[in-house]
From TrEMBL:
PANTHER family: LEUCINE CARBOXYL METHYLTRANSFERASE, LEUCINE CARBOXYL METHYLTRANSFERASE 1. This is Leucine carboxyl methyltransferase 1. Methylates the carboxyl group of the C-terminal leucine residue of protein phosphatase 2A catalytic subunits to form alpha-leucine ester residues. Belongs to the methyltransferase superfamily. LCMT family. GO terms for biological process: methylation. It comes from the Eukaryota. S-adenosyl-L-methionine binds at R60, G88, E197. Its EC number is 2.1.1.233.
């Protein structure tokens, strides 16, 4: 791999993310029947995260969930099945939550990519859990390859890659080349959603841009009207005083955030998509999502779950995280927009 030492610290962030989700579930911010099978048993005895972290996890999760269900609605209008590619998926449980829910049947492919160390661990967790395996298909349809670093099933695919490598090699080999049945894992002609949750900050802006552009080019060859959507969740604005404190905390753990550098304010975040010709790109901070996108009843419910001591700090933290989403329609008609 390219940066051996920092990589261990980057991979460690997956356990943090999974434990944060597990903690928010324990404290009843939301339900997730699958996360417990993806967090190592030993780690489950750790004390729950502080209320501030649980609230952040809740708001982020609600925001991304909402965008994902809207993407399903958009593709339903086109009467099409759709695909999701989760980049830097880590121990995320989203596939299982979708597969067990009303949109499960609409998924043509769900592809997760992460470092081989992470995909190996996840493949083992899947094999060990009857609950996780059952939603993948019949046991004979679930196979491992590449020395246990990849797992395949009819819809769900777990694939190893270092996404900083040139996507013309890494992504081509994984997603675009014809597989055993003669078709690539990723169809260029179905509506597709790219998820980048807390991952682009760990990559240089150049590497992220190359990755995003690879997908844009892959779908450009697609049928008229094909839709590519993207959701990015990340830290930003780290050069103000509070941002610097957050940055230093991470540096102390040897985690570098090259991907956060150019994103100094909320307006700059849309560039993640606009620089690749997306027709729609919007960004909201977690602070705004909490304030404007979550119902008063829900806010009331979660305010009763735990005592929050750091009330002033909450907004400061939440305004350094944002969800950015964009969509691109491949069309011969100029200025085709999608209402998302
Ligand atoms: N997306 C998951 C979530 O939101 O719960 C996991 C987020 S975790 C903070 C970041 C993940 O990105 C880790 O699993 C890490 O291994 C992965 N990652 C970071 N850089 C990567 C790279 N260059 N190639 C592949 N995976 C990477």
């Amino acid at each position: 791999s390219v940066y051996p030492d920092g990589d261990a610290a980057i991979r460690q962030t997956d356990s943090d993310a999974a434990l944060a989700r597990y903690s928010a579930v324990q404290k009843r911010y939301f339900t997730d029947p699958f996360i417990k099978y993806l967090v190592p048993r030993g780690a489950q005895y750790q004390p729950p995260r502080p209320p501030l972290i649980n609230i952040g996890t809740y708001v982020r999760s609600e925001g991304v969930d909402k965008l994902v269900s809207e993407f399903f609605e958009l593709s339903k209008q086109d009467q099409k099945q759709c695909q999701i590619v989760n980049l830097g998926a880590g121990s995320d449980s989203r596939f299982w939550r979708i597969a067990a829910g009303p949109n499960g049947g609409q998924l043509a492919a769900y592809i997760e990519i992460d470092f081989p160390e992470i995909t190996t661990k996840k493949a083992m967790a899947i094999r060990k859990s009857r609950e996780l395996s059952a939603l993948l298909g019949k046991p004979e349809d679930i196979t491992l390859s590449n020395g246990g670093t990849a797992l395949h099933s009819p819809v769900y695919q777990l694939l190893p890659a270092d996404m900083r490598l040139p996507p013309s090699e890494a992504m081509n080999a994984l997603l675009a080349l014809p597989g055993v049945d003669g078709r690539p894992l990723l169809s260029p002609s179905l509506p597709t959603l790219l998820l980048f949750e807390c991952v682009l900050v760990y990559m240089s802006p150049e590497a992220s841009a190359a990755l995003m552009q690879w997908f844009v080019d892959y779908f450009a060859a697609a049928e008229e009207g094909s839709v590519l959507g993207g959701v990015v969740y990340e830290m930003f604005g780290l050069n103000d005083p509070f941002g610097k404190v957050m940055l230093n905390n991470l540096k102390a753990r040897n985690v570098a955030l090259p991907g956060a550098e150019p994103y100094v304010d909320i307006k700059s975040l849309a560039q993640r998509f606009l620089q690749h010709g997306f027709s729609t790109a919007r960004a909201l901070t977690l602070r705004d999502i909490r304030q404007f996108c979550i119902s008063p009843e829900e806010l009331d419910r979660i305010s009763q779950l735990e005592m929050l001591d750091e009330v002033e700090e909450l907004d400061l933290v939440l305004e350094h995280y944002a969800i950015t989403w964009g969509a691109k329609i491949f069309s011969n008609v100029e200025e085709t927009r999608v209402d998302w």
